[in-house]
Amino acid sequence: MQKNETKSIACQGCAGAFSHLAAQSVFPTAEIVFYPTFKQALDAVAQGDSDAAVVPVENSSAGRVADIHRLLPQSDLYVTGEKFIPVRHCLLGTADAALSDVKTVLSHPQALAQCRANLTKKGLCAQAAANTAEAAKTVAERGDKSVGALASAVAAGLYGLKILETDMQDFDLNMTRFWVLECAPRKLDTKHPITSLIFKVKNVPAVLYKCLGGFATNGVNLLRIESFVDANRFFANAAFLIDVAADADSRAFQSAAGELAFFADEIKILGTYAADAVRLNGLVKQ
Question: Is 193-275 a domain of CATH 3.30.70.260?
Answer without folding.
Answer: yes
